[in-house]
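Annex B. Sample input.
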Amino acid sequence: MTKKSDRKIPSVGFGMWKIAEDDCAASVYKAIKLGYRHLDSASDYGNEVQVGEGIKHAIDDGLCRREDLWVTSKLWNTYHAKEHVGPALQKTLDDLQLDYLDLYLIHFPIAQRYVDFKERYPAGWFFDPDVDEPRMHLEKVPLHETWSAMEEQYQNGLTHRIGVCNYNTGLMHDLLSYAKIKPAMLQIESHPYLTQEALLRLCKMNDIAVTAFSPLGALSYLELDMANETESVLEQPVVVAAAKRLGKTPAQIVLRWGVQRGTTIIPKSTKEHRMIENADLFNFELSEREMTEISALNQNRRFNDPGVFCEAAFNRFHPIYD
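Annex B, continued. Sample output.
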């Protein structure tokens, strides 16, 4: 029998961010029916109950077994204190109708003031959204305390792996200096406009896998007014030329670049033809020149930046990247 720690994460996952509650259960079921076995969820997405319904439906219908699935979720910022990590994970498990996660991640290296489940769940970014001038409030919880509590959840068997999201190189070095259980995964924004080469190299040196969220770049942020259509990587000449050469779509070229450079990717779509397209990446290969030219598109353009959106939307300037 394969040890739980030896199992490899599927290279292409199905991301749950921004999937509406009404669409979520059906979308998860459809994704599993189409062959997806890696589901990327989070407390903050506000749809884990529906994700759980979709998983249960698929298992009940015989589309898969629980052990066939890789399910990831994330610890929200308001639950960083040692005493809150376990209950937060259990809440996620209850909502997902699962006994364990394959991977549990610290969502952001940001500790916010605790909000009780009964008061509001998911907690979101505001401490009290009903006051005249709501804002996010921080809590003095060091990241080593949160990681220690994550290690306890691993030891208790409630998650088979633990890791982090949105850490930079400095935080990764710091984490590795005190971690008793090394992080199995770093999840970061990465796409041709934000290649994060140094961070990927550091993770490779330390045998830490990397998942790239928003692998298509601006496409994930247009509806949030956090990007504009002129920033689409899909129209770059090297991407278009590779798509023409290989008979693939520009989106498939960019996603293949992500997989071929060694990252796991988690694209999101509720449209069946897009779901099929996003997973159809393993019957072609980009040339070394194409890989190099696509990587050269890097602009260090970060779309998901707390240093920007926290001030704009949550009334607090809170940068975590230089």
